[in-house]
Design a protein that fits this description.
Elements (H helix, E strand, L loop, with lengths): L1 H34 L3 H39 L7 E13 L4 E5 L12 E4 L2 E9 L4 E5 L6 E6 L6 E5 L9 E7 L11 E5 L11 E10 L6 E6 L9 E7 L5
Antiparallel strand pairs: 1-2, 1-12, 2-5, 3-4, 3-12, 4-5, 6-7, 6-9, 7-8, 8-11, 9-10, 10-11
Length: 251
């Protein structure tokens, strides 16, 4: 087992530069493609960025006010502080989608202090979690992977349910499955329900979007329901993700 683990790690470290080089080449190609745009297009893009910058500045100010209010209420109620993370942004170097696993390789590893098990997110919610960490690359297990489980809640409900990635087709839309759903929860393709992280388990912060529940049905024992979850199709097109690295290494 020791020889097998050493050989596997050595092989991954030897092949990692190939994936990273391809990712850098794509970035360089995109850079020169953007250089070919006309000045009018660049001026228009600059105006759009200025509008976005103004809206983000307002959002940052509002977020600071809300964070101060949360800390004030926590002090009044003598609640323990929430888990804090630092955001480590990383480019996607390679995607590996098959019928057995769903994963991607990012261009940051132990050189940036990324630990195994760290949650990975993007603007749409949860991407997955870090399953392997190497010298300057990491493997991210996606939410569509059958081996990934997350404690989740239905939007507007506090009762925890179990989410798990499903067997996905190579070129199909990413999907997942849920179990232990309360009997009074209903959802369909026409009236889906948002599925979010519950915060239980100490891996993911609460409130992050996982997907949409599109179907529920009674389980064999009749005590709970089970269902299907439609994940964001952007999971297969991400070029950059954010790793939430805990500030407290012991957590």
């Amino acid at each position: 087992m020791a020889l097998k683990s050493l050989s596997r790690a050595s092989f991954f470290e030897m092949t990692a530069p190939i994936s990273a080089a391809g990712s850098y080449a794509n970035d360089l190609q995109r850079f020169w493609a953007l250089r070919l745009h006309s000045k009018d297009e660049l001026i228009e893009a600059g105006r759009d960025l200025a509008r976005l910058d103004a809206s983000y500045a307002l959002s940052v100010q509002q977020n600071g006010e809300l964070q101060a209010e949360v800390e004030r209420l926590q002090a009044l109620l003598k609640m323990p502080p929430l888990e804090h993370f630092r955001f480590e942004h990383a480019r996607v170097a390679q995607r590996d989608f098959s019928g057995w696993w769903q994963r991607m390789i990012i261009r940051k590893g132990s050189d940036y202090g990324i630990p195994v098990g760290a949650p990975v997110v993007y603007s749409g919610g949860v991407v997955g979690r870090v399953s392997e960490v190497h010298a300057y690359t990491s493997v991210v297990q996606l939410t569509s992977d059958p081996g990934l489980r997350i404690a989740a809640v239905v939007d507007g409900d506090t009762r925890p349910i179990s989410f798990q990635g499903a067997l996905n087709q190579v070129f199909g839309a990413p999907r997942g499955a849920i179990e232990f759903v309360p009997l009074d929860v209903y959802a369909s393709a026409s009236v889906p329900k948002r599925l979010a992280t519950s915060g239980l388990g100490g891996v993911y912060p609460p409130g992050l979007t996982i997907g949409r529940i599109t179907h529920v049905e009674s389980s064999e024992d009749g005590l709970f329901k089970r269902g299907e979850v439609e994940l964001d199709p952007r999971l297969g097109e991400l070029t950059e993700v954010t790793v939430l690295v805990p500030l407290d290494p012991s957590s």
